[in-house]
Amino acid sequence: MGTQRSNRLKLIPRVIEGNWAVREGVGNTPTILGNKVTQRYSRGATFCEIDYDIASSTVASGLCRLLLSYSQDL
């Protein structure tokens, strides 16, 4: 079941306001996250949680570093 979920959950990124470098770094191309980063699922009676291991992808890690460096301007 986890593989099926990982192959279906799609992220459509969008930065409405922000620094040019952040908007360009994030982009707007949809991606299926299960193909890019490791995911772990937890499910309870009243919740469903998905944990993304950003460190499992060098591209995602680099994007996080970019976003963190520009978050100081907020």
UniProtKB/TrEMBL annotation:
Where would I find the Protein ENHANCED DISEASE RESISTANCE 2 C-terminal domain in this sequence? 4-74
UniProt protein name:
Protein ENHANCED DISEASE RESISTANCE 2 C-terminal domain-containing protein
What InterPro entries is this protein classified in? EDR2-like, EDR2_C
Sections of the chain in a coiled coil: none
